[in-house]
Sequence to fold (523 residues):
Amino acid sequence: MHTLKSYVCGHWHEATEGFRPLYDPSTEEEIARASSSGIAFGDVLDHARETGGPALRAMTFAQRGALLRDLSKALRAHRDELLDLSRRNNGTTEADGSFDLDGASGTLHYYASFGRRLGDVRTLPDDDGQQLGRDEHFWTRHVWVPRQGAAVGVNAFNFPAWGFVEKAACALLAGVPVIAKPATATAWVAQRCAEIMVASGVLPEGTFQMIVGGTGDLLERLGPQDVFAFTGSADTARDLLAGESLRKHNTRTNVEADSLNAAVLAPDADGDTLARFVRDVSHEMMQKAGQKCTAIRRVFVPVARIDEVQEALVARLDKKAAVGNPADAAVTVGPLATASQLSDAERGVRELESAGAQKVYGEGCRVDGLGSTEDRGYFFPPTLLRHEEPHTAGAVHGREVFGPVATLMPYDGTATEAAQLVALGGGTLVTSVYTDTRDWLEELVVAGGAHTGRIYIGSAESAGFGSGAALPASLHGGPGRAGGGEEVGGAIGLERYLQRLALQGDRPLVDGVLVHSTGEDDA
Ligand code: NAP
Fold:
């Protein structure tokens, strides 16, 4: 039995008790175990704050960017091995595993380049400054400096690599040491990534630690300079944020949670745009077996076209979906990650049906998978439902079924009604809109934009590849139910880990702080 280790206080810690098992979701074989027992969480925080933080703050943004570049290379060098492990620990096909792993190395690479562009500076200007008095002897300017705590990231099971790496990339570039806690079910992939990153030798002591298993009293110990970034379900987020100490110290938090993402087909969409819509919706249902926070859950189609679109979606799912063990090369949809995810997805479909949705494709419950033993494996087929009354569809807008499940619904074709229906999700990470009509799109953006973190536009000429990818240059996060957080998105992703402050005084001194920081006065 493989025992996962935590990397804390400069060494690999192996627990001796309190283990939770990890399974291969295609075979249900127990493959590893994880526990954080025996870790002194106060020491972990001290190590980050007292050793890692000063080391990072002594470096410039460009130097920290170079560190990220080396980490990206190290992960890429182990890509094949990690893909294989992801298949066993996370049930991913090669394409699904690469979505996570290449997403991780790609995000590091993106922030490495971002750091290079920021240059050899240790503070960042937020604006150009303004005169406060009668002349420039009383001047103000806003600047960003690294926070002096630890960046604690708690992550969801579905992106074991990208999930902790996208947080770590932003924190490290900002100058804040990282303590990553992956979800236990898929922690082997995360822990192996951590091993590779640590073995690369580029991380200064104390700048990166990983805890596998529970967080003990770590979260109660967070203070005013720390950052707590959570990704997972809205229920867990609510429980954790209710914690006394996070509120007492006003610890900065970021939450990325559930989302009932919507796809909207505009009335004009035809030809290539319609084909793109059908391709993207079915792809979003099947990729990672629908276990993506960005997956499309609600599909809105003009009432006059809903039968035609349903037929096209069903035909495509039927053609493309091969559910089973990803060890079989023919498989395109792997299993759900755990037994509890499987039963939750089954329960979720029943709740959607109770709210009036009807299955039009797929069983909506466990099936046997290709290349797998009968009655073994957490396989769940793509399942499309349809609800005729979207305004009263209740759970369809509120219950996230974390699997390959979406519900098709009619609307009147106006951007106004589409926006109202998107809003019923209570705040989403992404809304995808398929149209070639600028006025319709503008109306949708104005009426519905506040209810979502990102609008992906599919059109005849668009070269985009679907709404599911959280690309590092664009904001990831959404209002309300989606957690209200903001991650990646270039400079936006750094802001969580930086403190903005106003400098006030004589202009040469105020500007001189930044000039000195950039080294411009050495030129
Ligand atoms: P989860 O059950 O909420 O768990 C998320 C993380 O919280 C895990 O690491 C879990 O650790 C940890 N956790 C749970 N209870 C805790 C506690 N009392 N103290 C400290 N840590 C605790 O979510 P999940 O099942 O892993 O992930 C699926 C959910 O995440 C879905 O709802 C999905 O929409 C959401 N998600 C959102 C995003 C986004 O960016 N918005 C991205 C991915 C996933 P253990 O595993 O050790 O229990």
